[in-house]
Amino acid sequence: MKKLNFLGIGPKVAVVLMPWLAMSIIISRIYKEQFLYTISAAFAVHVSGIILMIIGLILYFSTVKLLLSGLKETKLVTTGAYRFCQNPLYSTFVLFVIPALSLILNSWLVLTTSAVGYLLFRIFVKLEYRELEDIFGQEYLNYKSKTPEFFPNPFKKF
Question: Residue 71: which pLDDT band, with cuts at 50, 70 and 90?
Answer without folding.
Answer: confident
